[in-house]
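Exercise 7.
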Amino acid sequence: MPVEEDVELTVSGAILRGKLFRPDGSEDTRLPVVVLQGGLGGPAESVFPMAPGFTDAGLACLIYDHRFTGYSDGEPRQLFDPWQQCRDLRHVLTHLTLRHDIDADRIALWGISIGGANSLFTAAMDARVGAVVSLIPPVSGWSARKLQPADTMAELDALIPGDRQAQLRGEPAATLRLHGKPEPGKPVMFSDEEGLEFVEKMIHGLPSFSNEITVSTLDYLFEMEVRAYAERITAPLLMVLASEDTVAPVEEAREMYERVPEPKELIEYAGQHYEILSNHFPEIVTRSAEWLARTLHR
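Solution. The predicted structure, written as tokens, is:
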């Protein structure tokens, strides 16, 4: 079993809380490390069970809650701002480089869905990233608008400026459901059956999970265009895609992958976004952890 350490990382006035996992018996070793990030709304607690897959491969791994979420600081709660998360992540990398038990020259990023997009962008901007694994990433924020019917999207667009005004007046941030079945007058971000089954198994019931996002999150998601940074990714890349993905449109991810410089590797599993996680997740974790171990040990 991996050795766990609770961590608190002070980043731009906020404390980000999580855990660092190390292989058992590695106390006197400076280890390569991978920072793991889950998908939209997934707290660090939902990612902790993946740690043995990485420590078994000889890697340390850090898993923490983003600002505004889980056990980390920040208001309003349940705001997910990818650009802010990436800026925070770069400070987190600095924390890692200052640890005596981490090899600062062997740092990697690994993420699912929006966590995969964050990992791609941070790898493009920060030369300290030695390798990156991106699973089913949404590489165009504008495409996220297609997850909603046109009339629902129009309703959400209309809420955003009013919410900005309300927050400026000191009122609570407006929210919408993250996962669930569509109901009249109650928009929801993700409603596909496979996705609901997956999050019910992996996330719902965790103390740090809240089944909502702020309306302002939509504004921040729509502005993130990771594919514009493809040519800047010089770290070795492993991208894992779902062949029929419409949640994070696979055609856009393939197009971005083609523009990323070598070395790189692409793996596709048959199915939809959540389908490949439900059917192949243990294999994906093991396969990507072994790829990272080989890549970081070069």
